[in-house]
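User: Could you check the structure of this?
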Amino acid sequence: KMTKKSLGGDDNAEHIQVALRVRPLMSSGVNDIADESCVTILDQRSVQIREKTFTFDHVFGDGTTQEELFNQVGKRVVDGCLSGYNGTIFAYGQTGSGKTHTMVGARDKQGEIITAERGIIPRALAHMFGQLERIKLKEEKEGSSVELNCKCSFIEIYNEQTRDLLDMGNPLKTLRENPKRGVHVEGLEEVNVSNVRSALLILEQGNRNRKVAATSMNAESSRSHAIF
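Assistant: Sure, the predicted structure tokens are below.
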């Protein structure tokens, strides 16, 4: 995450931070005989695994709610973006570790995201559009006019190829770099969105086009790295 401090600004701003989230034990058909976690949480920043201690910026136990995680990790990134700084939340972990649950959330039998179990992306969108509405109202009260445009894009990197998940007619794209735009995906489809629901519809559209395959740990494991 690019921050004020890394750009030579406020000394109280953040650098890149790494957070660990411990997933609860659950039945997966693999090693179901295990009845206790191999991770011992020592405090809010460190854990112990097989007598080795590892330190992070944040540690979240298996009882951490989606709301608590977003308030600690996601909210500040969104606020930073609205202040003009680049922000990224990157979920990393093995198959079945809970990346999709953390980023998107849990779904009901109809496939809808359960409100209380919304992940970082739905909550980030809700927070962002809420803040944008406040900015717009404030500007209007002060007699100014402001136009806000939000666009979504969605790509995956699969077998060293960049695929546009929103342009299945011409999905293969090329990474380019130039002095003005930096590294970017040439010809990437960008879709205008006006609220949380429209953005989530784009997310769902792209997810349907992702490469998935069954593994012993996950019936529909994503086979690619995706960026929304």
